[in-house]
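Budget justification aside, the reviewers requested a transparent look at the raw inputs and outputs of the sequence design task funded under Objective 1. We therefore reproduce one unedited record. The lines immediately below are the structure tokens for a 212-residue chain.
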């Protein structure tokens, strides 16, 4: 289970424990921890929130599927925007539900995905159809996966030194990533970078101390 709200993880864990063939073997409060726990625990399936700190659910899913292309990820989120849903499936998710769904639907989604099929809740299916019907052609993100990761941390108010420590690289490397991000997006201040990150679904944060 990957969700930054402990009360949600506790509730889901308690309910899933009542299923005779399901067991929660790990809990993560952010996407980065979810990626590491996937390496360590090799779960059969991951229930993934999207709006999480440090590394959002879309980028975490992308990294997890790169590690193990057969890994099953079901998104469980409050976000129902067409572009967010599209990015989650592009990242490699196999299912998507909204957090206001009934618990029985989550169980159904888990079983469906484990059986090798995709699962979209009815509400999300409608969102996808409307998005495909109305959306204009979209350009691929100009940023690399690592640059998106750095951008989320910048938008969440992390300093260059803090980002370097999180990603286990040098401050100079982060400065280089930051410059590449600004050059590619033609955005040269943190406030605008943050707005871009929110608009692209990299983070939901809009009021945090800004990176120095």
């Amino acid at each position: 289970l990957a969700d930054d709200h402990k009360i949600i993880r506790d509730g889901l864990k308690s309910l899933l424990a009542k299923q005779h063939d399901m067991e929660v073997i790990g809990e993560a409060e952010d996407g980065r921890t979810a990626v590491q726990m996937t390496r360590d625990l090799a779960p059969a399936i991951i229930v993934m929130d999207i709006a999480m700190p440090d590394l959002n659910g879309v980028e975490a899913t992308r990294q997890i599927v790169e590690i193990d292309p057969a890994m099953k990820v079901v998104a469980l989120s409050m976000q129902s925007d067409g572009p967010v849903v599209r990015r989650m499936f592009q990242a490699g998710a196999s299912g998507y539900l909204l957090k206001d769904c009934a618990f029985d639907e989550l169980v159904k989604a888990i079983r469906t995905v484990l059986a090798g099929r995709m699962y979209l809740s009815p509400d999300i299916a409608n969102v996808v159809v409307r998005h495909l019907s109305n959306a204009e052609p979209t350009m691929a993100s100009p940023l690399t996966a690592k640059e998106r990761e750095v951008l989320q941390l910048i938008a969440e108010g992390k300093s260059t030194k803090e980002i370097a420590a999180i990603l286990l690289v040098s401050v100079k490397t982060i400065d280089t990533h930051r410059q590449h991000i600004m050059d590619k997006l033609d955005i040269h201040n943190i406030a605008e970078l943050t707005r871009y990150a929110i608009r692209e679904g990299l983070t939901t944060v809009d009021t945090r101390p800004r990176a120095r």
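The chain has two domains: 6-134, 145-199. The radius of gyration is 17 Å. Computational costs for records of this kind are itemized in the attached budget.
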